[in-house]
Records
---
Amino acid sequence: MTIKIFVPIDSTALSLGANEVAVAISKEAQAKKLDIQIIRNSSRGLFWLETLVELETPQGRIGFGPINPSDVKSLFDADFINGGEHPLALGLVSEIDWLKKQERLTFARMGITEPTNIDQYMAHDGFQGLKNALNLKPEAIVETVTASGLRGRGGAAFPTGIKWKTVLDTQATQKYIVCNADEGDSGTYSDRMIMEGDPFVLIEGMIIAGLAVGATQGYIYLRSEYPHALKTLNEAIHQATKIDYLGEDILKSGKSFHLEVRRAAGAYICGEETSLLESLEGKRGLVRFKPPLPAIEGLFGKPTVVNNVVSLATVPIILAKGAKYYQDFGMGKSRGTLPIQLAGNLKRTGLVEKAFGITLRELLYDFGGGSLSGKPIKAVQVGGPLGAYLPESQFDTPLDYEKFSEIFAVLGHGGIVAFDETVNMAKMARYAFNFCAIESCGKCTPCRIGSTRGIEVIDHIMQGHDVNKHIALVRDLADTMLNGSLCALGGMTPFPVLSALNHFSKDFGVDAIDSKA
Amino acid sequence: MEDLVLNPQDYKIINQHILEYQSMPGALLPLLHAIQDDIGYVPELAYSLIAKALSLSVAEVHGVVTFYHHFRTHQPGRHILQVCRAESCQALGSDALEIHIKNKLGIEFHETTPDGAFTLEPIYCLGNCACSPSVMINEEVYGRVDNKKIDQLISDLKNAS
């Protein structure tokens, strides 16, 4: 009987040598004349265990990890295929505590299936949401998404259903669905995992969005830093088109939806929805004034839904299992689950999908296992480069959009980057201004000029020149950027800067900061 | 000295891509990508051809090419080494790694080694933040990179080319 061995094809696994592991397994098996089949699955998101090799057994899939190419020989020498003991054996993967404690809804198939195998997608509940949606009127699809409480997972947390309703209610000859896959926030990779690991769920979500608002054309605006996602998405679109899930007359419903991937070109600002639309139109990614909202005048002047990858990829399960099922997860106005990405200086990094309400402390210590370096965690940046730095005293904050907002922080796209005590927070504040200066589109003055002035003022502080005077200047500048910028880049750069200043004043050469943000 | 005209081979490639993309809505970025994928950069001498085909001004084409970090206007080295400078990588020592790489190659960001082997670029997040620090070499990402690992990668590429 052929033995099935799984080696992930996710680019983080590849970055640690998964291809070399697969080659080594194949060679060893050949040498030992074993009948094996290597399956390139998506990653479970337990990245600290990559390369995570799995073996199919009658009891379920057994894991071994982290496996380096040089460990492969020892696996075979231990006869791991027949239950031989090995120090890197992990037991049943589905029983690994880190995974078992999660609530995987959007990421239900992650690590289990082969990314571009459409039959496997269907065998694991794929396209159930679409089939339900095809029997519903557009208004009813929009109502289901609204009732689920789903909010934009890109970071802005705007209710997805309300956005869709605006597009549905706007009359036009052409409407568009645009997927924002310009995942530029540092510390985040959930979009990448979906596109590389379960691309059909995104495609299904986009088709449902098209049915809901009456759009027949979709674009996935994909960052150029994700070459593997590009290949996977194009292959998945090809597969779906071949069996009439995309294109004209989807499943003989008379409805059509076309989908195309467009590559971005390395501009962080193009993750801002209006800048993204400019870029899709072939222009410089300059932010547009709002109104008009993209939902009314978006791509090529037509009503356009712009949603993040995770938002769209969550739609299928909502349509498959109903709004209430999804709504029952979460707390307050933050309903459902959030795919949280643990990054930076942590022992056990990876993708944790949990209902809203889990605290930062649980994520950092129960899941993350504390810092990789073994030194105390000093600061944690949540929500990408425009997110606030949180000190240890705020680690008990539950993950909830409103609770974070109360402490002048954001959840953003769910990225969590931990720093140990060696970090200098004045340097991180300087970096935030510097990043803004590099990535500013240049349209509004607070962002374009403010970011560069910010670097200069922080330099004065770091050199000990007139520290109190320059701290007052930074606050004044932050106030101008916060209230005067056209979009979130200039408008939120003050979040990392002020949080660093307020919580880690010693790094700025002062004992305590009296004024509040 | 800069060339005054496109070489015939590049001219042919650029015109083929123009024909392929010019009727596509929002054609400019896909066209620039296609050109750069094939010849390694977007020659300034191509701007007028592109502008004419897409009914744009040369200034508009120039504006787009230079807005996006991804597009280059000069031929890069044989290998493109991009070092992530974002927060997660900083949390695990990318600043020191960056200095090590610059010293090793003897160049700064946006420069190419005199032998034409490496072009060094900064990049802000490769989505590999669970295994920082990361670099990308010719579109392949490497995670948990330390000085030893990057030295090995660089010497492997040198030996291969």
---
Amino acid sequence: MTALDFTARARTSLRDSQLRRNIAKATSTIRAKTARVAGELPDWEALRDAGQAIKRQTMAELDRHLVALEASVTAAGGVVHWARDAAEARTIIVGLARQYQAGSVIKIKSMTTDEVELNPALSAAGITPYETDLADMIVQMAKEKPSHLLVPAIHKNRAEIRDLFLRELDPAAIPGGRLDADPSSLAKAARAHLRAKFLSTKVAISGANFAIAETGSVVIVESEGNGRMCLTLPDVLISIMGVEKVLPKWEHLEVFLQLLPRSATGERMNPYTSVWTGNRAAEARAGDGPQVFHLVLLDNGRSKILADEVTRDTLNCIRCSRCLNVCPVYERAGGHAYDSMYQGPIGAIVTPQLRGFEEAGSLPFASTLCGACQEACPVRIPIPNILTHLRAKVVAEKRQGLGALNGENLAMQAAKAMFDHPTLLAMALAAGRIGQAPLVRDGRVTHLPPPLSGWSLSRDFPALPPESFRDWWAKREPRS
Amino acid sequence: MNARDAILANIRSALAGSTPPVLPPFAYRRAGEMTGEELRARFLDRLADYNVHIVRLRNEAEIPAALADRLAANGATRYVAPADLPSAWRPAGVEALEEVDGAPLSHAQLEATPSVVTGCALAVAETGTVVLDAGSHQGRRALTLLPDHHVCVVFEHQLVETIPEALQNLIGAVRDGRPLTFFSGPSATADIEFDRVVGVHGPRRLDVLFVQGD
């Protein structure tokens, strides 16, 4: 496990009261909206069933659907690339950007490009990446990390964003150097700042919400129109998607176009959804969209997640972020505590599986297992189940490794021996009744000495009674 | 082994031994049940919820006057028009910037024109969504993207109730390789404090001229 794990990072964010206020305000707003628009559909639960069933069916034959997608995208004039890992994805995309002589690229919000750390690789190659989603642009300008799947700048409030814009935006985007802190004025400044870039940049990079194997179509769901700009105006479009984003049939989209916006932003429908099929539009009529389309299919650990039947459902995620908004741990600890572009309950299962337990093994423990995430998930991912499964794997890995001699392991071994042998248990209880005396206050133990002090920091337990159940049972008068 | 074969081999070995689940019959609504009047009321209610300016018309003949009015209200003396925008819709005395095949308008020209007028492929009442499929009266995508004000003509007979009905109707366009744009109100963002504000990069004002009757 890393030196700085979830608990340590959460401790830092818990001390930031501004941050906690920002997150609590935003998540309570969105919880109310999503609950309302999900609740108004008479068939919401049936849609969730269908979403889960389609995703499970897709994953069970993922190889077949990817081969079909490759064929349909190619037939529509697109070029398909395959990337085993983040490094391969970076090499492919940087290579393409170079091939089209891009000095800069415009980007649509994409967690997959964050996952493969594309922006630093582009910068190192002398290609400037411009994030065009408002929140992504804020995070990029502030040189920070995203703190929420869907609204990555949720940790910042309007006043903080205003100050950032005054420092970082093109002065021409802020007439007179005066900028109000209301979201409307801030959005207007962002529009002015990015307009010239949309009109002049030749290469765009996007993720994908869905890709349809049957037709070769790719789908982007968005709000601001920065997506439409990137998908329509440049000459070259490069999209990257995790292999799990494929949907076998066009008709499956009708389920997810209902589940996603209502779960994500709490709207009946998001402002813009774009669907394109290769570069056929550009061929058919001059200038309708990019003349060149590349699609990069990324594995980067996904086939490993697929191999474990318990964790396989992790791949069903449609990145709506509803589980973050209902999670009591996320609401208090904030997104940065997860140290990943995938935060909250879904992050706690995705990140350790993508990056390994060595780096992210503390995340499956960042949950109270209250189950709110599973109840909210539009595709019914059994997140608590997967969390406990991963916890067991983390512990098993530690037991095998050099960490076998750590205190927790030794304590557990001792406990196992004790519970296996009645005599040992009786002796331990007798010793405990004497030893606990200095720790008991009003019948409860509230503080334990190190190394157990961490455990008792937020937990009390009742003092051992003067007589154990076994002693009482042995002493009692026989009835008959 | 190349990356493609390696990924496919990994997926196949990951799936080896597990049986694909059987897809159960779906219980969600794939067709609407509303009558004409309910459908119309629902659509207009949803549009209003997105801050769309709605003009209700009794027939196609009322389009030019309504258009002239909406363009004037937005200070537009010119508008972008797809080449096949019906002449029966066009208001007299307002200059239309034509998109003619073979001579596309430049991004700068589109950017400098305040309004665009189009028809649509269909509209969805339950979500207040209008869909463009690069078909009749719509032009290519950039036309409806760069002008700041979009006036869209929607006929009552183009309404469907649900998203599944809309997608069933659009499969033909998709198979033809035509791009689709779904829009539900003007551009918006909730990126600052999850507080929804209207008007970012896409058109900041959306008017729908709703023509009643079949």
